[in-house]
């Protein structure tokens, strides 16, 4: 594929680059992205890493060549999880680029970029400029060079990454636990053995073999069908819990001893309580508007200040930086930590869960009951012809009702005394996404069905 035929509007997203290889982008474009990243960041040195997809090593090396041609020295950390790349960016003080398409199918690949200290690069923070340069240079034989060629240096950061994470959680009082870990043939198979090695754990591994073709199931634990093997293995082995990581291992999902999935909101509340305790019972905690009512409640109960924000890592990270928050969590199982450069790391959240469970004698289901207080619908997608029209119809149906408030911070949030729901349009598909929560199951079901009837009318 010639670079000049690339349609960058299809692959440059709000927060990253992502598309099918080689149909939508290839190594020639990756090299231009490397040169553009070097120019936009103005850095003398950068760090790169990649996941286990077949196309990742070649794309990553091409990006490094493009940056080196601009006189930038490149530290290549090779195979890594996304949060391991964020660690390297923060620890080394360098802008970074991670080659991964996260949970997308095997034919996809992408680039997640950050400035020094793991600060995000999105449309408003450099990605639009990077895209413009790549488009400009793709019609010329090569991107301009500086006359000096930077160096390419290999560095292994896995042990340093593990040591940093383990330093952030008190695991000294932890009892022995049996844990099933489903890596989904993704980067959890690379990071888990090193991070968990010092702990009193019996690890039952599922799909630790690094294989970017995902031969067993998609590396997307947000879809319940991809948790079935983990749930079965937890029950089969009598494990204390199960953990599932996505393809680039920056998200972690938790299953209790009964094989039941635990809401990421409950994990957010649990980790928030622990991080507040670690910080003297004070500090801000960020949560997006789709997390459970239980999250701000628990934060307040433990002396913290909850801060509500829009969905999306750029909004979370902006609020983390603005407020100096100690922790942030999303309903999608992204967990952000001040002591991890405000970046998201599922592994650190997993260590908190292990420490909390291992520090007492009860079960995980018993432990999280305190943090899982309400009935939730999960996210329900509806295909609609007119997103704006349906949103307006739903708003009109609830506006003016006694005891109901409406806000539009992100989509449409309708709140009553004993229930709330949020309705958001997808940016990429003709979908409306509904999340409902209520104080009990019958109220949640009634509210959900009423909202869906309006959405699907």
Topology of this structure?
Layout: E1 17-20, H1 27-41, E2 45-50, H2 56-69, E3 73-79, H3 82-92, E4 96-99, E5 108-115, E6 119-120, H4 127-137, E7 152-154, H5 158-167, E8 177-182, H6 188-196, E9 201-206, H7 228-237, E10 241-245, E11 252-255, E12 261-262, H8 264-278, E13 284-288, H9 294-301, E14 305-309, H10 313-323, E15 327-329, E16 335-337, H11 346-358, H12 364-368, E17 375-376, E18 380-383, H13 387-398, E19 405-407, E20 412-415, E21 419-425, E22 431-438, H14 441-455
Parallel strand pairs: 2-3, 2-4, 3-7, 8-9, 8-10, 13-14, 13-15
Antiparallel strand pairs: 1-5, 4-5, 5-6, 10-11, 11-12, 15-16, 17-22, 18-22, 19-20, 20-21, 21-22
Helix pairs in contact: 1-2, 1-4, 5-6, 8-9, 8-11
Please explain how this structure is put together.
Helix content is 35%, strand content 22%. It is of the alpha/beta class. The chain folds into three domains: 3-156, Alpha-D-Glucose-1,6-Bisphosphate, Chain A, domain 3; 160-262, Alpha-D-Glucose-1,6-Bisphosphate, Chain A, domain 3, CATH 3.40.120.10; 375-455, TATA-Binding Protein, CATH 3.30.310. Strands 1, 2, 3, 4, 5, 6 and 7 form a seven-stranded mixed β-sheet that branches. Strands 17, 18, 19, 20, 21 and 22 form a six-stranded antiparallel β-sheet that branches. The protein has a five-stranded mixed β-sheet with strand order 9-8-10-11-12, sandwiched between helices. α1 packs across α2, α1 packs across α4 (127-137) and α5 (158-167) packs across α6 (188-196). It is globular. The mean pLDDT is 95. Residues 10-138, 160-259, 269-374 form the Alpha-D-phosphohexomutase alpha/beta/alpha domain. Its cofactor is Mg(2+). It comes from Streptomyces chryseus. This is Phosphomannomutase/phosphoglucomutase.
